[in-house]
Amino acid sequence: MAMASLGRRRATTLLCSSPSHKLSSILIRRFSSGSDENDVVVIGGGPGGYVAAIKAAQLGLKTTCIEKRGTLGGTCLNVGCIPSKALLHSSHLYHEAKHSFSHHGIMVGLVEVDVPAMLAQKDNAVGNLTKGIEGLFKKNKVNYVKGYGKFLSPSEISVETLDGGNTTVKGKHIIIATGSDVKGLPGITIDEERIVSSTGALALKEVPKKLVVIGAGYIGLEMGSVWGRLGSEVTVVEFAADIVPSMDGEIRKQFQRSLEKQKMKFMLKTKVVSVDTTGEGVKLSLEAAAGGEQTSLAADVVLVSAGRVPFTAGLDVEKIGVETDKLGRILVNERFATNVGGVYAIGDVIPGPMLAHKAEEDGVACVEYIAGKEGHVDYDLVPGVVYTHPEVASVGKTEEEVKALGVEYRVGKFPMMANSRAKAIDDAEGVVKIVTEKESDRILGVHVMAPGAGELIHEAALGMQYGASSEDIARTCHAHPTMSEAVKEAAMAAYHKPIHI
């Protein structure tokens, strides 16, 4: 239990380490200043941007947020994380009603899909949440400008407002939080009807008979799951040898088998040579990644899901000399500052995982630095989740990464088939895997494939944040019966032996 005690001491130290003299006058400034200049201007109202703006206002900084979409929340809330989870949940309910209810003694008649109603539920959820962020802006006195911003100087932003006007917003500190955009593929034109991005895949008016997904990453597999459950024949074409390359190899293999049992087909080590839309459907020409004879594949809809790229178009960052790398990502230091004084960047426009929750952490830390406080983001402990069924979640290092470092390690695993709650609800596919340093028992990585894995992973993330060992988790009482007991048992397996297998 020594590691847990060290974690508690560390937490106490952190809470007590900010002397009162750091709470400078900047933190108690009110919004009654007659100056037009802001302390902070945030360009972009997505998860990183709106969180940064609210945090800045909470710290007493006069703040303006500029957003071109007209609704807050960015890609994540409007056409990403939130609407996709709404459709994943709705399609899962349909699939359960059609295939699982009878196992539980629930007999229903004809089960049908009403796509417009499903999309309306999704849109309602999105609308309520975007309005909620506007309410938070008003509550925290964040000035909200709707329009497209571009740099005039390191302290001035010209905004073409959505109502057709133009205004200049001045700020001592400018934070670029413009997020990312869909990565296109050469020779493939996205029309959001037959060839769609994730945005179009969230708004299909009917269930396509055949759906081809180009790219076997998080987004492609989630959207493939949605339409596959609703009746589409789904084929995933992936250039690489594996799906979700960042995933732990052992978990990945189980995950792919699970998706294949759900009738999702995979064509790995395969590249798309061309796409023909001249006929009624879509015809794809394919060949092996290493080259060879071409084959064809027909589809009603093709989803291009080959990743995302930083979005800085029209910002004129080059005009003020902001440095970027060859991928178009803005380069920043440990305080999120660019090479141009007073200009910062966070979220998907800088190196690191393109995840909404990572962007939020960036936003908070960046503003804390600006306010003279200390910020912190541990990029080694950013959880990742694939919201299929079962879900797959991970935090920390994969077994392959630990092995490559030359660290001696142990692995503890526990199958969901041996978890009483999972068996009780007849949903027991998956496993929990914990990788620890052999000598110290410190947890290096946790990987979960299970129903609700995205919730289970945070016990591991919190433990790892404070240097927990597998024994720390194993000796923590977990309520019975719960899915989280599988995490406890995997921890027991890592340092000694599990009880229930």
From TrEMBL:
Where does this protein hold FAD? 85, 149, 178-180, 348, 354-357
Q: Which InterPro entries match?
A: Class-I_Pyr_Nuc-Dis_Oxidored, FAD/NAD-bd_sf, FAD/NAD-binding_dom, FAD/NAD-linked_Rdtase_dimer_sf, Lipoamide_DH, Pyr_nuc-diS_OxRdtase, Pyr_nucl-diS_OxRdtase_dimer, Pyr_OxRdtase_I_AS
GO biological process terms on file = 2-oxoglutarate metabolic process
Q: Which UniProt keywords apply?
A: Disulfide bond, FAD, Flavoprotein, NAD, Nucleotide-binding, Oxidoreductase, Redox-active center
Leader sequence segment: none
Question: What range(s) does the Pyridine nucleotide-disulphide oxidoreductase dimerisation domain occupy?
Answer: 382-491
Question: Start and end of every FAD/NAD(P)-binding domain?
Answer: 39-363
The UniProt record lists the EC number as 1.8.1.4
Q: Which Pfam families match?
A: Pyr_redox_2, Pyr_redox_dim
Family recorded in the similarity comment:
Belongs to the class-I pyridine nucleotide-disulfide oxidoreductase family.
The UniProt catalytic activity note for this protein reads: N(6)-[(R)-dihydrolipoyl]-L-lysyl-[protein] + NAD(+) = N(6)-[(R)-lipoyl]-L-lysyl-[protein] + NADH + H(+)
For this entry, the protein name equals Dihydrolipoyl dehydrogenase
- Organism (species): Salvia splendens (Scarlet sage)
Q: Indicate the segments annotated as coiled coil, or none if absent.
A: none
Please, what other remarks does the record include? The active site is a redox-active disulfide bond.
SUPFAM superfamilies for this protein:
FAD/NAD(P)-binding domain, FAD/NAD-linked reductases, dimerisation (C-terminal) domain
